[in-house]
Amino acid sequence: MITMDMPLQANILGFLALTCYILTLLPTLLRIVFPLTKETGIPQLLLKHRRSIGILAFVFTVLHSFPLIKQRNIDLFDLKTFWIYIQGIATFIIFALLTITSNNWSVKKLKKNWKKLHQLTYFAMFLLTWHIWDKMSGHWTYLTPIGLTAISGVTVLFLYKHYWIQHFSAKQKQQKKITVPMLISSDQ
What we know:
By secondary structure, the chain is mainly alpha-helical. It contains 9 helices and no strands. The chain has helices at 8-33, 42-48, 50-71, 79-84, 86-100, 104-110, 112-118, 120-136, 143-187. The mean pLDDT is 87.
């Protein structure tokens, strides 16, 4: 059933935030899962503007969440309410951290920790899927299935990239290590 409980503006802003977020994930996923996309230049274009798109995702997230908090008079300091909105709050915090550290100064200061911190984006991917499903359950708009399909598709690509491809590339490296000593020992 598709209804309009939530203001259309909040849905659109949430959808725009989700779209920008997905665009930040795509360069790596496309390059690894679909290597032929390198030839199109799309992954390079998205990679070039990844920080800006990520910051835009955070701006849309703020514009999505604050009017809803105000409209529903949500008290985030109430523990019960906090747990009801935990996925959205956690995603918001992750997006805020990623936005604050999306600059060259942070990369230099945090060094290896910058990359570790920015890996939180993959946790946010799962939180967002849960957030959309949970908060829109029972009152979907026309954007809900599009958003859920998009974030679920990206999540599946991430899991494929992370587990399947990396598993096989690790296996290939291991086989090369085994093959090289065998070749050396058979030559002697």
